[in-house]
């Protein structure tokens, strides 16, 4: 059983929802990324999504675009991201780490080389925004053989055939995009989520996480009552942007702890 599967199994048994925070590796500089990851765990993160910075992050809004720009300006690369995971893993053998990013850096490294390096570094899953399941079968097979989960996204516009496609190819959990837009937007249709998530969960047979547009404890709690996990990224990046360097990790921990507290207020009876 993978670390991701183990986390969801334990949370389900306890009647709790998963908190999956996102940060961009190398933002504002590489030295702070591991302290930020440790702060996320201390604040109550169950899984960490670690963004691999890319020059054209088409699914990301202005906040995460700025984070990628800062990280790239500081020399962050896919190889350095893997070094960061390796350093984090030396002190944390249990928290799953999912790399989230785009195809170009992986293509540049090569599928086999990336998969081997990711496994060695302690990565648990990979979410590549621009790898639809029908176009990355070889990559998916290589990840699966290495024991890594490939996490796919579904959107409000995804047809039910896409549910079946990601069920066959994916692993770990499904990332459901809560709205038609980019990260950081704030126009979630909770009624539509309530209709879609049970259908997705039944079709894919995996936990369903929801991201995009979650700004605070109240919206996280509403999402958590419907989904198995809540992904929050842009707001954490905004906390990093607004905090003095020496206080940024503590601020990240405080913010995440507030989201964790809200999710833990969801009763078992409210579980979707």
Structural overview:
The protein starts with a helix and ends in an 8-residue tail after the last helix. The chain has a single domain, classed as TIM Barrel. The chain is an alpha/beta fold and 272 residues long. Strand 1 (18-24), helix 2 and strand 2 form a beta-alpha-beta unit. The longest helix has 17 residues, at 248-264. It is 51% helix and 13% strand. It has a nine-stranded parallel sheet with strand order 5-4-3-2-1-9-8-7-6.
C-alpha Rg (nearest Å): 17 Å
Please describe the biggest sheet, giving its number of strands, its sense, and whether it closes into a barrel: 9 strands, parallel
Adjacency order of strands in the biggest sheet: 5-4-3-2-1-9-8-7-6
Span between N and C termini?
Answer: 24 Å
Return the CATH topology: TIM Barrel
Please mark out the parts with pLDDT under 50 across 5 or more consecutive residues, or reply none: 181-185
Number of helices: 12
As for the number of domains, it is 1
**Based on DSSP secondary structure assignment, what is the total number of beta strands?**
9
What form results from the Cα inertia axes? globular
Give a quick set of tags describing it.
globular, 272 residues, TIM Barrel, nine-stranded parallel β-sheet, single chain, alpha/beta
């Amino acid at each position: 059983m993978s670390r991701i599967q183990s986390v969801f199994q334990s949370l389900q048994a306890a009647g709790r929802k998963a908190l999956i925070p996102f940060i961009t590796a190398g933002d504002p500089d590489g030295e702070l990324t591991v302290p930020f990851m440790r702060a996320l765990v201390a604040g109550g993160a169950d899984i960490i999504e670690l963004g691999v910075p890319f020059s054209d992050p088409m699914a990301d809004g202005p906040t995460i675009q700025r984070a990628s720009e800062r990280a790239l300006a500081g020399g962050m690369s896919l190889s350095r991201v893997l070094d960061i995971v390796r350093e984090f893993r030396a002190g944390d053998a249990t928290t799953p780490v999912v790399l989230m990013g785009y195809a170009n850096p992986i293509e540049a490294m090569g599928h086999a080389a990336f998969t081997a390096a990711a496994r060695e570094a302690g990565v648990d899953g990979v979410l590549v925004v621009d790898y639809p399941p029908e176009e990355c079968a070889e990559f998916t097979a290589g990840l699966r053989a290495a024991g890594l989960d490939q996490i796919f996204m579904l959107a409000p516009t995804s047809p039910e055939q896409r549910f079946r496609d990601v069920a066959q190819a994916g692993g770990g959990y499904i990332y459901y995009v809560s709205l038609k837009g980019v990260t950081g937007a704030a126009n979630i249709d909770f009624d539509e989520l309530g209709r879609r998530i049970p259908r997705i969960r039944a079709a894919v047979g995996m936990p369903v996480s929801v991201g995009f547009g979650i700004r605070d404890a109240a919206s996280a709690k509403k999402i958590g009552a419907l989904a198995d996990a809540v992904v929050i990224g842009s707001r954490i990046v905004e906390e990093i942007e607004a905090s003095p360097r020496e206080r940024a990790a503590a601020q990240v921990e405080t913010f995440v702890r507030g989201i964790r507290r809200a999710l833990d207020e969801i009763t078992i009876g409210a579980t979707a």
